[in-house]
Design a protein that fits this description.
Length: about 130
């Protein structure tokens, strides 16, 4: 399983660096890539203008068919807007939410995420 993520202040990158999976960071410099295997997205939470590159990536060529789940990094102070980016992606693309966590996540969040990915199957450990 490949992890596709974006980050603006580095928290999501710090989370994915704790995972035993191969990761691909989306950025305006590297917004798209044709996928040939299953992936999950880890999304920070910001206005759509900032996270739209995630949707563009999923919509690129055949990528939608390999998109299997989403996790969200956010801040509970945003109350009802907590991790809305990941929740919106789950709804829009009809995929499960694997985990929701604050900032770069705790050990517990990492465990939950790994178990979630394993339950989706097709794990491919790089370590
Ligand atoms: C301008 C701004 C808006 C944000 N809006 C939300 C929000 O609506 N909901 C939420 O849960 N977190 C929100 N956050 C918190 C970030 O999503 C959170 O800190 C996340 O860990 C950042 O990930 P990143 O460092 O990978 O970019 C916001 C942060 C900033 C700076």
């Amino acid at each position: 399983m490949l992890i596709v993520y974006m980050t603006l202040t580095g928290q999501t990158r710090r989370f994915v660096e704790k995972l035993p999976f191969e990761c691909y960071e989306l950025s305006t410099a590297f917004p798209t890539k044709q996928m040939t295997a299953d992936f999950v997205v880890v999304a920070p939470t910001y206005d759509f203008e900032m996270t739209g590159i995630i949707d563009d990536f999923i919509d690129y060529q055949d990528n939608r068919r390999y998109f299997k789940g989403v996790a969200g990094s956010g801040n509970r102070n945003f109350a009802e807007l907590y991790v809305f980016t990941a929740r919106d992606l789950a709804k829009k693309y009809d995929v499960p939410i694997i985990a929701e966590f604050e900032f770069n996540g705790t050990e517990k969040d990492v465990d939950k995420f790994i178990k979630g990915v394993e339950s989706i199957g097709n794990t491919s450990f790089t370590q």
